[in-house]
Design a protein that fits this description.
Elements (H helix, E strand, L loop, with lengths): L6 E5 L20 E2 L2 E2 H11 L4 E6 L4 H6 L4 H9 L17 E5 L6 H6 L2 H4 L4 E4 L3 E4 L4 H12 L2 E7 L9 E9 L2 E9 L10 E9 L2 H6 L12 H6 L7 E4 L4 E4 L3 H13 L5 H8 L1
Parallel strand pairs: 1-4, 1-6, 4-5, 8-12
Antiparallel strand pairs: 2-3, 6-11, 7-13, 8-11, 9-10, 10-12
Bound molecules: 1-O-phosphono-alpha-D-glucopyranose.
């Protein structure tokens, strides 16, 4: 049974250690890609996909993420008095009731972070977006997944092929039959060594999940790295509910890594007509 996906969970409590010292006092989700913070891209993608409620799972030191989506009253008033256009701020303001935050008090893993949102999610399907994975596509990655969900229902993870030696960085799919852009998921393993990986089809940071995954997460079982893994809870739904991995038409930038972050700035800068000519001239 399909049901409109109205809510999206953004696990944003992580420490961002791969980008230190930049992330020492600033959430990694607030790092800028061209002219807006990483979180803005994920929120825009969710809104485009029809998401009505944004659920941020935050932690200590992450208050600026919530402030960012608030109204900047003094700024807007001053800009208004000076006759400056407020358009650049438009998408950064959440509507009343659009943004809900819950806290993850201890860094116990991605599965635990998602579980922290269970009361807000209730009994309906929901999306999860990991803002580190910046997805550039038209329509956006989540919109493409919502379209796939309308056909397939059940649970859907976004997936892409990775190099064999990279399987230990991802959740990896044990694949069944493929039809179009969707592959049946027969199993999921979190961060397997290349030698034991069931494939090179890796889960990337976009999910559409049924609420029963919350019951599985309630067990608080730990897996790879001693953390409560979303992958393990999802794996327990296979066979009980339909489960597909969908390849979307979008480019992924891993902005939790230095190279991915710089690449994203280059790619999006080159796609911005205001600054592309200068970038092309200087970058050669
Ligand atoms: C998480 C998930 C992993 C997934 C990855 C996508 O890992 O646990 O299954 O493949 O995100 O980015 P992390 O990158 O948080 O270690």
């Amino acid at each position: 049974m399909t049901h409109k996906v109205r809510k999206a969970v953004f696990p944003v409590a992580g420490l961002g250690t791969r980008l230190l010292p930049a992330t020492k006092t600033m959430p990694k989700e607030m790092l800028t890609i061209v002219d807006r913070p990483l979180i803005q891209y994920a929120v825009d993608e969710a809104r485009e996909a029809g998401i009505e409620q944004l659920v941020f799972v935050t932690g200590r030191g992450k208050a600026s993420l919530v402030d960012y989506f608030d109204m900047a009253y003094e700024l807007e008033r001053t800009m208004g008095e000076k006759g400056k256009a407020l358009d650049p701020l438009a998408s950064s303001r959440a509507g009343y009731g659009e943004l809900v935050t819950v806290r993850q008090q201890q860094p116990l893993g991605l599965g635990h972070a998602v579980w922290c949102a269970r009361e807000v999610i209730g009994e309906e399907p929901f999306a999860v977006l990991l803002p580190d994975d910046l997805m550039v596509g038209k329509p956006g990655a989540l919109k493409q997944m919502v379209d796939a969900y309308a056909r397939l229902g059940g649970n859907i993870v976004c997936a892409e092929e990775v190099a064999a030696e990279a399987t230990a960085s991802y959740g990896i799919v044990d694949p069944g039959a493929t039809e179009g852009n969707a592959t049946e998921v027969k199993g999921l393993v979190e961060k397997p060594d290349p030698a034991s990986a069931p494939s090179r089809l890796a889960v990337i940071g976009r999910y559409i999940l049924q609420p029963q995954v919350m019951e599985e997460l309630s067990a608080h079982e730990t897996g790879a790295g001693g953390e409560i893994q979303l992958t393990d809870a999802m794996a327990r739904l296979i066979g009980r509910q339909s489960f597909h991995a969908v390849k979307v038409d979008a480019t992924r930038y891993d902005c939790g890594s230095k190279a991915g972050f710089v690449l994203a700035n280059c790619a999006l800068g080159l796609a911005d007509p205001d600054i592309a000519p200068l970038l092309r001239e200087r970058l050669g």
